[in-house]
Amino acid sequence: MTSMQEYIEKLRQRKAIAHGTAQDAEAQHKKGRLTARERIDLLFDPGTFEEIDTLVLPRYDVYPGGKRSRYGDGVVTGFGLINGRRAFVAAQDASVMGGSLGEMHANKIVKAMHMALKYGCPFIAINDSGGARIQEGVDSLGGYARIFDANCEASGVIPQLSLIMGPCAGGAVYSPALTDFIFMTENAYMFITGPEVVKAVMQEEVTQDQLGGGRVHAEESGVSHFLARDDQECLAMARELLSYLPLNNQDDPPYVRPVDDPERRCPELEEIVPVDPTKPYDVRQVISSILDDGRFFEVHALWAQNMVVGFGRLNGYVVGIVANQPMVLAGCIDIKASIKAAHFIRICDTYNVPIITLQDVPGFLPGTNQEYGGIIRNGARMIYAYSEAVVPKLMIILRKSYGGAYCVMSSKGLRGDLLYAWPNAELAVMGAAGAVNILYRNEVKNAPDPEAKRRELVEEYQERFNNPYVAAARGLIDDVIEPRDSRRVLIKALEVTLSKRERHVPRKHGISPS
Ligand code: HXC
């Protein structure tokens, strides 16, 4: 009779096959990448990961041409703890048929996703794959479709993160694109069609990196939200992002007992933001000054830099920051900035993260590029997202708040909750010079000294209309505050609005502009 020890030994042999060889690991290391299991070890708290489906078998013992998959079929799935909180993962193993996706490989991913959804915890996909397993044909394609469907089903319920750490080509790119956040390492790449197809169809010579490298997607396309130097940094960033997100949409984001004083004044703000509305500054300094311990986790940091978004904490509560960046394009809203803000606002609303808007915006970026690119429908995305959001919406107007930009960013009309302005704020349909040119063209032209008349009228306009007091007089902002009180006031406002309950009229779903 077989002894228990022999049974155990046979199990161990099978699992050892699934784990691959030292040469497999070495091949991956040579590419400057970690293996699937090394990545998982860094993603989860030490010793907490439990693998499932280790012994799943591929569709064929031997593929045409003698190629073989092995136990596990090229993807490691399971669950564990990240910062002490539960999460599921699927990490593709590039050492098994290039990490290509066959039917059973897909089944494992879908199973892990369904579990994450059912048990209400985040799902992290680590992509490193040559795409659809060519030998499995439509079984493989069908697998992708089921993954896409699971992504859509889980959307807005559990956080979904995609970490691209190797190739991600063809239709394989659409699972990440359906998730909440994409991370890429510098030596990963994503594209719908590779350089060879591009050359054949478009007669365009382009390298993998130029076409879809990590940097391209972080800076040009905005497809990825985070760029990491290497696998280690990427996994650390994913852990940090999860520290700001709840396990699921029914949960609150994780509260951390604060060290930073909620009554702390921020006198430095009076220096950081120049009173002269034409002078640029870095709004990230304002954000750091206000948030707990100056910690700001920026999202989409390299794309559409005229809008800054990211997470931080106020008196221990997670908040999402949406801020114009006067240092880039004078903080104007353009197509990319609007898309970036809209996505982030929807993330915050989904995961019960209050939104704090820091406004200093001269308006929408003018020009044919913007109009032809559809600034109308794309700008509408941000309005839609602000209006749809039922989480607390707080705002400070730091300086400029002009025209359409005033309306579309968290205004009272969009059910902004508690809105503040600094005393230097300029809230008006347009700047004084532009307004005087339109309203008093003839008076200026016919004056004995037109330039003196123009200056006089600009000053008068500035005094009468272009300040925070007209809005304060109408209750369109809730108070004018001293810059140094910004943190203190925001914390008070946040704590009173945390119990906010607001619902929409029932509907299947809205139709967000796109
Ligand atoms: C089956 C594959 C494979 C695939 C790689 N392999 N991709 N096997 N199907 N899609 C196998 C190779 O045959 C090789 O097997 C092993 O994996 C390692 O591949 P290498 O090319 O030697 O490795 P490397 O040089 O690191 O290059 C990796 C790669 C390259 C960049 C991923 O293999 C590649 O370009 N693969 C094809 C990519 C692709 O076009 N995929 C289809 C996309 S279309 P051996 O046994 O020799 O080690 C798609 C449709 C999805 O995905 C549609 C969804 C809607």
From TrEMBL:
Occurrences of domain CoA carboxyltransferase N-terminal (ranges): 1-257
Keyword Transferase: yes
Keyword annotations of the record: Transferase
Molecular function (Gene Ontology), one example: transferase activity
Domain CoA carboxyltransferase C-terminal: 261-504
Cross-referenced Pfam families: Carboxyl_trans
Name this protein carries in UniProt: Carboxyl transferase
Taxonomic source organism: Roseiflexus castenholzii (strain DSM 13941 / HLO8)
